[in-house]
Amino acid sequence: MSYEQTTSKAILLLEDGTVFEGKSFGAAGTAVGEVVFTTSAVGFQETITDPSYFGQIITQTFPLTGNYGMNAADSESDRAHATGYIVREWCEQPSNFRCEETIDAFLKAQGVIGLYDIDTRALTAHLREQGTMNGVITNDMAADRAELLKMAKSFRIQQSVQAVSVTELKRYSATGERVGEVAVYDFGCLRSIIDAFNGRGYDVTLLPWNTPADQAAALAPDGIVLAGGPGNPEDCGELLPSIRALMGSGIPVMGIGLGHQLMALAVGAQVKKLPHGHRGGSQPVVDSGIGKTFVTSQNHGYAVDEGSLPKSEGEVFCRNINDKTCEGISYKKSPAFSIQFHPEAFTGTGDKHYYVGRFINMMNAGGNR
C-alpha cells in the first residue's frame, strides 16, 4: 500500500481569535466543536469512536498518530463521534498485522475533518492556560473568518446523550457460562464496558437513555449500570427522577462517567466545569478505601463538587491526585457506587476490571432485595 499526505491547507480558528494553520487530512469541509486535548499515546481509534467525545474537536498531544492503523475490532462504538481531529503528524504506512486502513481513510469514511502539521504543543499549552474553548476547523481558505469566529462563539453541545444512545433495547450474550444479567443505560456506553461484563459471564441488556426506571427493574437484572457519556450533566435533569427511583429500588447500581455525575445530582450534589477537563489514559486516581492508586483512562469536562455532596447520602472514596477532584462515591442509602473513570481501561496495573469486580460482588450480595 502507498499513501500520499496532502499539502492542502487548513486552519483551526479558536473562539478567542487565535489561528493555527496546518494541512488538511480526513474529510474535507468545515467543523465546529469544543476543542480539547487528550494525552493518550495509543488508542486513537478508541478515542475517536468514544461517544463521550461527541461535539468535540480532539487534539492528540502525542506527536505521531496512526502508526498501527485502524481495524473494526478496536472501535468503542459503531461510528466516530468527534467532529474534528488534530494531530502533529499522521502515519502514511502503518505497521501492524491487524491494520485494515489508515487513520486518514478512516476519518474520510466517517466524515471527520482533520488538521495536521500544526504545533500541537503550542495549542495544548494555549488550552491549558486559557481553558477549553470552542473552535472551527476548515480547509476552505476563502471562508469568511468573521463568520467562522461567530460560529465558534455561538456553538454549544446540545442533546448529546440523545444523539449517542441506542434507540431500542439491545442484548449482548455472555462469553462462556452465563451467571447473570446486567442492564446498562446507554448514555454513551463503550463497547469495552459491555465486553467486561460479558467476559465475566453476564448477559448485557443495553437500554435507551430515557428508559423508565420501572421498565428497567421489570427486567429483574442482577444489577444496573449507568454508562457514558458526553455533555453537561445539568442538561440531563429529566433523568434524575428515574435515577433516584433506580437507586431506591434495592437493585445494585453502578455509575460510570456521566452516570457518576447524574447519580450525584440525583441525591442533591452539584457539578462544576473543569478548566480543561481530564482526558487521556494517564489520569492518576487514589482509592482511599483500599489505599491504592490507579492509572486511569478518562474523558470529562465536569466534576462532582465534593463539598456539595450531602454527607447523609454518600461519601467520596476516589480522588484525582492532580487536582483532588471527586472520582468516586459510595452511597449510604442504596447498594450503589459510582466512578468518574473507565473501569475497564486501567493502565500498567494488575487490577484491570477491579471496579467491575467490586460491582459483581455487590450483585452477588443481592443488594437490598
UniProtKB/TrEMBL annotation:
Annotated keywords: Amino-acid biosynthesis, Arginine biosynthesis, ATP-binding, Glutamine amidotransferase, Ligase, Nucleotide-binding, Pyrimidine biosynthesis
Binding site for L-glutamine: S52, G229, G231, L258, Q261, N299, G301, Y302
GO BP field: 'de novo' pyrimidine nucleobase biosynthetic process; 'de novo' UMP biosynthetic process; glutamine metabolic process; L-arginine biosynthetic process
Active site: H342, E344
Matching InterPro entries: Anth_synth/Amidotransfase, CarbamoylP_synth_ssu, CarbamoylP_synth_ssu_N, CarbP_synth_ssu_N_sf, Class_I_gatase-like, CPSase_GATase1, GATASE
Root EC class: ligase
Record region (CPSase): 1-178
Similarity comment: Belongs to the CarA family.
Protein name: Carbamoyl phosphate synthase small chain
Native species: Ligaoa zhengdingensis
